[in-house]
Amino acid sequence: MTPRPELPSGRIRLEEPPRLPTAEGAGGVAASAIPMLGSLGSVVLVASLGGGSSEVRVVAAGLFLVTTVAYLGFQLDRQRGQRRRQLTGARRAYLRHLAGVRAAVREAAATQRQALGWLHPEPAALPSVAADGTRVWERGPEDPAFLHVRYGVCAQSLSVELAAPADLDADDADPAAVSAVRRLLDTHPVQPDLPAAVDLRRFHRIALAGGPGAGRALARSLVCSAATFHSPEHLTVAVLATDDTLEEWEWVKWLPHAQAAQRSDAVGPVRLIGSAATALTDLLPTTGHVLLVVDGPASAHGVVPPDGRPGVTVVEVGAPDEPPAAGELRLELLPGEDSEPGVPVRAVRLRAEPVTAHADRCDPATAEAVARRLLPRQAATSAPDAAPATPAGLPELLGVDGMTAFDPGSGWRPRPPRDRLRVPVGTGSAGVVHLDLKESAQGGMGPHGLVVGATGSGKSEFLRTLVLGLAMTHPPDQLNLVLVDFKGGATFAGMADLPHVSAVITNLAGELALVDRMHDALAGEMVRRQEALRSAGNLSSVRDYEHARTGGADLPPVPSLLIVVDEFSELLSTKPELTDLFVAIGRLGRSLGLHLLLASQRLEEGRLRGLDAHLSYRVGLRTFSAQESRTVLGVPDAHALPSVPGLGYLKPDPTTLTRFQAAYVSGPSGQPAVRRRGARRAPLVLPFVAREVRAPVTAGPAAGRAAVEPPASDQASVLELAVARMRGHGPPAHQIWLPPLDRPEPLGRLLPAARGPLRVPVGTLDRPREQRRDPLVLDLTGAGGHVAVVGGPRSGKSTLLRTIVAAAALAGSPRETQWYVLDLGGGGFGDLADLPHVSGVAGRADRDVVRRVVAEVQGIADRREAGDTADGRGDVFLCVDGWSALRAEHDDLEPALQQLAQRGLGLGVHLVVSSARWSDFRAALRDQLGTRLELRLGDPVDSEVDRRTAATVPTGRPGRGLAPGPLHFLAALPPPPEQLIAAAREAWPGLEAPPVRLLPATVGLAAVRRQAGPDAPGLLLGLDEAQLAPVVLDTDAEPHLLVFGDGRSGKSALLRTYLHEVARTRTARQAQVVVVDYRRSLLGEVPDERLLHYLTSADQARPALDELASYLRTRLPGPDVTPDQLRRRSWWTGAEVFVVVDDYDLVATPQGSPVATLQPLLTQAGDVGLHLVVARRSGGAARALYEPVIQTLRDLAMPGVLLSGNREEGPLIGTVRPAPSVPGRGQLVTRDRGREVFQVAWSPDSATR
């Protein structure tokens, strides 16, 4: 569409004309001659005084005189020539300036003429404008030229102002320049023969005075000009004429502006043409502007009062000779020769200078041509406020005699190539309107198109009509459908059962993740079709493919695929990246048999960027704005359509615009009324004239009996009946869209995909690009043997872990897989403790069991690493549900599990862990987790699979997640625990996984001694958690022991066991015991023959320990001790001394500690035979670590035991913190073995014994 030329404006300023140069005069010459005369006088004087001949002096004087005169003449001539050259140069420069101004003025005048000619074309050009359609009805109330109508041409001022120089009349101005300026100012300010227009809103009466022929020609021009550029919504044309002159206005019947909205006759809306003013008054609208033409003696007073009526302009042909009143314009057609510009006319207004012009002429043939070309742009049966005529039914357009008689086999019969993908969609002025989806090379309008219609315009109904019409005329092996509705899905409701439907994708606005899935499905369909062409022999198009099939090639059908996308504009606003997909379909659709139809209520500027070139046909229903109509159709016509659903324009190519009324398929199939069988009526032909036409009276088929049957109110719609008739017929369409992953599959349905106990299905994997779903099978045989499940709260982590356990249990026997479970999350594994494959389940409250389970798995790995592979077990799985809880509550276990992950796969030991974030796993562990399943995360940015895709995982859908690819999956539902356990026991009768051996809460010292055997070296303190083996303390290598524990944690029991073991391993001659026991809890535990001192107070302890220290110092090796004596420690004889201090927090006071006297000997304990055991409560132990005796023991890295205590005390021995535990349960920390959890061996106290 050519843009509207802009009317030039602004100001062109002329420069001042040059001034005449000032003459120098004789004074200048005299001033130059004075020095010469002085020199001459001097020469004469010298000559007269000197000697020599007088003749010589006369000659010399004469020469001087001649030279002086000549010089004076030369000077005078030079000054005159210089002034003349100066004037000529200034004049030429100014004339060049005027030439530039003249060129600019001429250019502005030409642009002004072009702009006015484009705005108000001459009557002879109006048929072409109407036929082209791009400018028809372009002017709305917002247009500055609204209701401006051309009446002729006249001289008008130049739209650009020429600013004359200020002192043009100055005396010293160059006359030639001034003359040139005046000629320019006199010639160009007024331009001849420019289009002149009248604003109809300013005048209620335009009187055409003069001859009736010239008046009618001018009136026809006014009407045609107004009707061409203004829609019937804004302008109504009416004619009031006498019976004699009515024939002159017969052509007006074709104008859509001259049709009554309230009344119809036998041939349509009544034409606003007549000779009765009263009848015409009743038909005039109350909105818009009315242009009423009055021809002949008929008076408009019956329609319009003398002083006018708002919104009505009367054009009176042959007006009487009277001066104009207020609000009137009198166009006087002057007598004279009818020249080329037109009949001379003078425009006269009240209190205004008359304007002389040349009136336009429009003959009846030209006027009728304009009217006929405007008629197809108006609804054939109704005006905006009139009741719309019943749209044609689709069965009627298809030639089907009622939907109950529709036979898919008959409708799908082979069609000629011309009718392939060609379907009727409605009716127009020329009959049935068809939409042909074939590409233009095959005689069609496609392959791609655009539909735009505002709310209530019938857009959805048009799409339903198109889709249903194609389905009723093409079998599923020739045409498939993809129906996409970005909003709720009402547009294509009820069409999913059509055998042609490959996909119905609705409600994308409510679940944007489906938009990406749709993108993958459509892109995958393009790839599938390309592969089909390649496998058929590298064919170039689906058309060649079909020719090969019809030629006998054994090829599956590849039907054409129509992709209808409703509300695509909002879809692209939400997902702009879909534009690339639509452009790809537009580019490759011709060869792949893809047809794209985009529909929307609104069309934003620039939304079609990149797509516009691929959209061949356009359908414009009523639009929200004229600009939207221009964007779709190139003309504003769709905006001017009345509010009749289904009324619109079809633009199959750049030069054709067809108005149509779409068929209606959503109403009862009895609408329109179904003619009773046997009733026949011949077509009735009536004349279409300006006057009202009455319908002839014809006899009915039977008196008193109607020829039609009223529709039943409960009758099914055409759409419903058509879908029901076609359901189940023909081969089903290839499904490119499977339902979204909304309902989880039961695990039992997926088990056939299992390939042994280490290749198990746990869910459904969505592959929209491949248009299929696959079981999500975990391969735990190789590098993927460790599994990580990560997801936010309530995302289904625990359920997915249960699914993995259940799948392994149903796919393999308890001899092939055993499971150890740390249930630190939602507590969902308690019901699986009885599963034959589960060795043990430890809950969050079972702190000791948690450690024992880890120790059990570590022991299995250790034994296998040591070469003991014949343990009767298969692959061992340690499942940790809640890794973050394990780190928070069992941080000491994390290094062990990380080490287990690094070496476990080669030993048949697997980790299956879950957490809320990937960052909960340290990098060293995360690298070992080869199988990763990611559920919905709290923040998609944390995704390790794909951040962009992670954002599309829906919330509130437990089990939905991402697998590497990225691919969406939905976890399967595990069977109920009781069913799972029963199925496993039935499948593997008599087989059970070895249960977890738990560390007992109480273990007797005698039992430990029996397990260790009579030759056990060292002191037996209890049973360790890892192997349930005796814990042995080697006092020769580690002579001292430090014990921390809260009250009733087992400190005294440990010391008692220690003393009993000293007594077991050493005789009284080999060991003597000193007990410092302020609370007397160890009273009687040491036999008298072994007891050196039993000290219960500081007064007793200080001298006794000082004496002991003095004695032990005597054992220090002197300089005479040989190396051999040092090795055998034979330089002294006697018993080793075991100093056991209980409740050291009572012994070490601010006044000092009696035990401190032994501190210097601690470093040489092995040389002097000293063993120190210090036990104190753990409360406040962090401060006591710097007490000299305890600090020395820690510096020597002596073994320590941490019984039950508060973790808040911090690390007490090495990096190990105390932890709450049952009495007697402790942590032994040594240099060689690190940290060991053990149960102190219980031995009864002396009172119990």
UniProtKB/TrEMBL annotation:
Domain (FtsK) ranges: 430-630, 773-944, 1028-1212
Membrane topology: Multi-pass membrane protein
Organism superkingdom: Bacteria
Residues that hold ATP according to the record: 453-460, 791-798, 1045-1052
Keywords assigned: ATP-binding, Cell membrane, Membrane, Nucleotide-binding, Repeat, Transmembrane, Transmembrane helix
Molecular function terms, GO-annotated: ATP binding; DNA binding
Spans traversing the lipid bilayer: 26-49, 56-74
Protein name (record): Type VII secretion protein EccCa
InterPro entries named in the record: AAA+_ATPase, EccCa-like_Actinobacteria, EccCb-like_Actinobacteria, FtsK/SpoIIIE/SftA, FtsK_dom, P-loop_NTPase
UniProt entry tagged with the keyword 4Fe-4S: no
Keyword Transmembrane applies: yes
Location relative to the cell: Cell membrane
GO cellular component assignments: plasma membrane
